[in-house]
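Running log. JK asked me to keep both predictions on one page so they can be read side by side. First protein, sequence followed by its tokens:
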Amino acid sequence: RMFAPAMGIPEDPATGSAVAGLAGQIMACEKPEDGEHRFVIDQGIEMGRPSRILLDLFVEGGQLKSASIAGDAVIVSEGIFRPEGTEGTP
């Protein structure tokens, strides 16, 4: 998740953890038939950071057998965290 209010980012434009939880809500409310189902979730549009997450469900015997989320990401920064006192150690 990305929260950086001091940098003008008050919330994350894409929440994969929320989309994973959406699978249970879909099963409870929509009760999809057996088979494979794909849902496309668009987020962050209003905040100017559009994001798209794909949610795939596999339903068998009226039960959710598996769920997966997917999407694309772009690396905007990279770094290494080192314990204090290990500066300069590769």
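And the second, directly underneath as requested:
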Amino acid sequence: HDEIENILKLKYHDIDVACVGNDAVLVVICSGDVQSISDMKDELCKAIHIDKHCVHFEMVGRLPLLTNGKIDYKTIKNVYL
């Protein structure tokens, strides 16, 4: 998932992004200045060779963080998977 996050961060500098997933779905959580989720999804699917139906994007006001400032992936998994 780190690679997916890095792909998106390199292309879209004004967003924060976190990815979680399982065998059935990849969930991409974004916050920030996102112009087009559809374009992001298309570009990501092409870059990692995955079917669009397996990827779900969610926009949030702010990514959940731990007290140390790192992304709280456990909370994201509990909410979105």
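Observation for JK regarding the second prediction: The longest strand covers residues 15-21.
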